[in-house]
Amino acid sequence: MYSAIPKVWREDFRENVTLAELNNSLVDLNIPSIIYVAILMVVGVLGNILVVYIYTIKYSPSTYRSFILCLGWIDLIACTVGMPLLIYSLMCPYVFPSEAACKTLRCLHMFFVMSSAFIVLGIAKERHQRIRYPLSTQITPTKIKIMCSLCVAL
Questions:
Q1: Taking the mean position of all CA atoms in its chain, how far away is CA 14?
Q2: Cβ(49)–Cβ(120) under 8 Å?
Q3: For residue 13, what are the contacts with CB-CB under 8 A and spacing of at least 6?
Q4: Rounded distance between C-alpha atoms, residue 129 and residue 152, angstroms
Q5: What are the pLDDT digits (tens) for 33-72?
Q6: Is the pLDDT of residue 1 over 50?
Q7: For residue 127, which of 82, 64, 84, 71 has the smallest C-alpha distance?
Q8: What InterPro entries does the entry give (predicted)?
Q9: 141 closest CA partner among 126, 131, 152
Q10: How many of the other CB atoms lie within 10 Å of CB of 101?
Q11: Confidence (pTM)
């Protein structure tokens, strides 16, 4: 018979174990992951705030700046919204408040990951075009903003 509870846990617990006890034992196993995600969250928030500040204030408008700002904002939102929700899901693996909240959390996480990946792909395309075809027509900052909007919309 299939069980979502790993075999090692089933053998270590008595028959009448509560869901809260199972949840607490899994949280104990998740502590290193929780600490790691918390460190990534702090570093990500500080780093992306710095990137957004520097690229907004210090750099003149360009295609590269537009891409980096878009990536910085998406990653900043991911670090301030997505990572705390991920930590919460690691702390409540069996007693998550609702199925809809769990699905929404996973959807938000994938949204941020895919948006970042598409923006990095756009940066690679723009860099390739600038290096490979330096004398041809280049992508304008307006087109970059449209591309960033599409990356987020997809």
A1: 38
A2: no
A3: 21, 22, 25
A4: 22
A5: 999 999 999 999 999 999 999 999 988 888 788 889 999 9
A6: no
A7: 64
A8: GPCR_Rhodpsn, GPCR_Rhodpsn_7TM
A9: 126
A10: 13
A11: 0.79
Q: Would you state the structure tokens that stand for residue 45, as one six-digit string?
A: 């928030």
Looking at residue 140, the DSSP 8-state letter turns out to be: P
* Residue whose token pair is 């449209």: 146
8 Å CB contact between 38 and 90: no
The type of residue at 75 is D
The answer to whether residues 68 and 51 touch, using CB atoms and an 8 Å cutoff, is yes
The pair of structure tokens assigned to 46 is: 């500080």
Collapsing DSSP to helix, strand or coil, 139 comes out as coil
| Under 8 Å between Cβ of 115 and 152 | yes
The one-letter amino acid at 60: S
Cα–Cα distance, 21 to 27 (Å, whole number): 10
80 contact partners, CB below 8 Å, separation of at least 6 = 45
Tokens representing 2? Answer: 């299939």
Structure tokens at 127: 């860099």
